[in-house]
Amino acid sequence: MKYPTEHAEQVTFIAEFERRFPGIRIFAIPNGGYRSKVTAANLKAEGVKKGVPDLFVPEWNLWIEMKRIKGGSVSAEQKDWIAYLESVGHNVIIGKGWRNAMDQIEDLRK
Predict the structure, then answer these.
(1) Which residues make beta-bridge pairs with 67?
(2) Closest by CA position to 28, among listed 7, 4, 5, 59
(3) What is the DSSP string of 35-87?
(4) Are 32 and 10 in contact, with CB atoms under 8 Å apart?
(5) If residue 108 lies in a helix (H) or strand (E), which one and from where to where?
(6) Lowest-confidence range among 31-40, 57-66, 85-94?
(7) Which region holds residue 67: left if phi is over 0, alpha if psi is between -120 and 50, else beta?
(8) Element (H or E) spanning 93, and its range?
(9) Distance CA 45, CA 39 (A)
């Protein structure tokens, strides 16, 4: 069985999030993807940090790291950011696919 890419999972998640929670703002942190060396250096100089979670919901103080249903793993840099964010009072979830991320959000909101 072929599983959707992390990109596809995140696109589906965003659409479902915006459908379920109209008016709640969510935005992506564009840390991943291929970039030229010049672009990568420019972004690093501007403050882009490796390992920061993919999405943020300011109203809920919630960071979301998206992964594929199968095959995605959390890097050392991501683990470090997650530990830091939780230590300063933020909520962080790691969604293994869009449904898992949505289930975790529903659990947090109970």
Answers:
(1) 96
(2) 7
(3) --HHHHHHHHHHT--TT--SEEEGGGTEEEEEE-SSS----HHHHHHHHHHHH
(4) no
(5) helix 98-108
(6) 31-40
(7) beta
(8) strand 91-96
(9) 10
Can you read off the two tokens belonging to residue 98?
């869009």
Distance of alpha carbon 55 from alpha carbon 14, whole angstroms? 9
Q: What is the pLDDT of residue 47?
A: 86
Residue 95: beta bridge partners?
Answer: 66
Q: Pull the structure tokens for residue 89.
A: 């009072």
* pTM listed for this prediction: 0.91
- Compare 31 and 104 and report the one with higher pLDDT: 104
Rounded to whole angstroms, the Cα distance separating 71 from 11 reads 18
Q: Which residue has the tokens 């420019």?
A: 42
Instruction: Read off the tokens for 47.
Output: 């403050």
Query: H or E element: which one contains 110?
Result: none
Asked whether the beta carbons of 95 and 6 are under 8 A apart, the reply is no
Partners of 28 in the β-ladder: 55
